[in-house]
Design brief:
Largest sheet: 5 strands, antiparallel
Low-confidence stretches: none
Order of helices and strands: HHHHHHEEHHHHHEEHEH
Helix content: 40-55%
Distance between the termini: 54 Å
Strand order of the largest sheet: 2-1-5-4-3
C-alpha cells in the first residue's frame, strides 16, 4: 500500500466490503468509491474520515490513509514515558495494582509487556518473562507446552485471538506467524466443560487454573494508546485463588483473604 487508491482498495477487501457496501456505510455514491480507487478522484480529509469510520480502521491505518492522500497524519504515536501519557500510565498502574493479589499486565500491539503488577512479576518470572518481554516469544518457546496441562486448547484460543487482532489491523506478520504456529498444535479437545477455557499451569510446585479479561481504552486519540491492552487474570477455582494469595504474600496492595 503506497498510494491512496491502493490503500483504500486493500482495506475495503480486507473488510470484505464491495464498493456498494462501502458506499452505503460511508453515505457516498458507488461511483465516487470507484473513482477514488481508480485515482480519478482525490479524497478530502473529511472523506478519509468517513471512509475510515466505515471501515473501522485503527488509528495507524487512518494516518496511513491521510499521508497516502497527501495530508498530514492526524494521530500521534507518543512514547510510553511521554509527559502527555502520565494520566494514562497512572490509570494503567491503578488497574494493575488494584488487581492484586491476582496477576495483571499491560501489553502493546505486539504483546510486549510494558507494565505489570507484583503478582504478575512473580508468576511470569517462573516462565522467564519480565518487563519488556514478549508474550509472543513465550508462546512460541518450549516453555508453555511442558507447563500448561491443557496447552492444545490454550494454543487454539490464543491462535484465534491473534488472527482476530491481525485481521482488525489489516494483517500483522508478527501476529500471523505466531497464530500459524499455535494453529498447528495438535491434540485439542472439542468438548467444553466450563464457561471459559482456563490456562492450567503446573510447575510441579504449584498448580494454577486462571483465565483472563482484556481491557482497552474507549476513546483513544493516540496510536500507541489505540493498541494498548490490559490483561487481568483471575483464578478459575478456589485452590488457584488460595495459591495466588499465598504467592503474593508480602507484596504491597494485597488485600486479606
Amino acid at each position: 500500500m503506497t498510494d491512496f487508491p491502493g490503500t483504500l482498495r486493500t482495506w475495503r477487501k480486507a473488510r470484505r466490503f464491495s464498493q456498494l457496501d462501502l458506499a452505503g456505510e460511508a453515505d457516498v455514491s458507488t461511483r465516487h468509491i470507484s473513482f477514488l480507487e481508480s485515482g480519478r478522484a482525490r479524497p478530502s480529509r473529511d472523506m478519509i474520515g468517513r471512509l475510515s469510520d466505515a471501515l473501522t480502521l485503527p488509528l495507524d491505518a487512518r494516518n496511513q490513509m491521510l499521508t497516502h492522500a497527501g495530508f498530514a497524519a492526524r494521530y500521534p504515536a507518543r512514547a510510553w514515558d511521554d509527559a502527555d501519557m502520565a494520566p494514562i500510565r497512572a490509570a494503567v498502574g491503578h488497574m494493575l495494582q488494584a488487581h492484586s493479589p491476582y496477576p495483571a499486565v499491560a501489553v502493546d500491539k505486539l504483546w510486549t509487556v510494558i507494565d505489570m503488577n507484583g503478582p504478575a512479576k512473580l508468576l511470569f518470572g517462573t516462565l522467564g518473562l519480565d518487563l519488556g518481554g514478549s508474550l509472543l516469544d513465550l508462546m512460541m518457546s518450549d516453555t508453555l507446552p511442558s507447563l500448561v496441562e491443557n496447552w492444545p486448547d490454550v494454543a487454539h484460543h490464543a491462535c484465534q485471538r491473534l488472527r482476530t487482532e491481525s485481521a482488525a489491523q489489516g494483517g500483522v506478520p508478527a501476529l500471523d506467524r505466531v497464530a500459524d504456529y499455535l494453529g498447528a498444535v495438535p491434540g485439542r479437545k472439542h468438548t467444553p466443560t466450563s464457561p471459559v477455557i482456563p490456562t492450567i499451569l503446573n510447575t510441579g510446585h504449584m498448580r494454577l487454573s486462571i483465565f483472563a479479561t482484556i481491557a482497552q481504552f474507549g476513546t483513544p486519540e493516540d496510536v500507541a494508546l489505540d493498541d494498548l491492552k490490559v490483561e487481568l487474570y483471575f483464578p478459575a477455582d478456589a485452590e488457584s485463588d488460595a495459591a495466588l494469595r499465598t504467592m503474593a504474600i508480602g507484596l504491597d496492595n494485597v488485600p486479606p483473604a
